[in-house]
Amino acid sequence: MPILPKERDPRLITIRRGGTLSDDDHHLLAEWAIACAEHVLPLFEDAQPDDPRPREVLEVARGWVRGEVPMREAHHAAFHANAAGRGRPDPVKFAALSVGQAVAVAHVAEHELGAAAYAIRAATAAAPVDDGDASERARLAERDWQRDRLPPAIRDLVLDDQRRRSAICWNAFDE
């Protein structure tokens, strides 16, 4: 299922590519996506303690935010995080995919919502199955945790993006 819309929102396209997104706000989106991914990373690391790829990929993402890593290198790093999750149980796989989306924000800012949505999916998948409401509580708790960490400069943009794209992001952001 695609998490990127068919029609791109110019507010999430950098100015140099014809949109209205400033570099500062692009970096804030990346930092928020990194925080979302890192919040669920223990689900991966507890299950795969000998696989450092997702943690290393988050460091690449941080390097891009600091201007130390070129966009193409950050974009390529996403494939390493995605590969780390391949064939793993859902909480582990989704945590790795969240990391892949977070680093991909360097290439396409709209991946910020992918990082958040996969983090919500990871938290939801990790909820106890014997409690019928646990997955919904986990979804809402993760969504609210993420929203509490939105920088004011991008808060309205991200919340609007969540409303606009929740349906293609597994309804992760629904109220």
List strands and helices in order, with pairings.
Blueprint: H1 23-47, H2 53-65, H3 71-85, H4 90-104, H5 111-125, H6 134-148, H7 152-165
Helix pairs in contact: 1-2, 1-4, 1-5, 2-3, 2-4, 3-4, 4-5, 5-6
How is this structure best described in words?
With 175 residues, the chain is mostly helical. The protein has one domain (10-169). The chain contains seven helices and no strands. The chain has helices spanning 23-47, 53-65, 71-85, 90-104, 111-125, 134-148, 152-165. The protein is globular. The chain starts with 22 loop residues before the first helix and ends in a 10-residue tail after the last helix. The relative contact order is 0.17. The mean pLDDT is 96.
Tally the beta strands. 0
Proportion of helical residues: 55-70%
Describe the sheet with the most strands.
none
Measured by DSSP, the beta-strand proportion falls in: under 5%
Structure classification: mainly alpha
- Estimate the mean pLDDT confidence: 96
Q: H/E series, N to C? A: HHHHHHH
Short description:
This protein is mainly alpha-helical.
Record keyword descriptors for this entry.
mainly alpha, globular, single chain, 175 residues
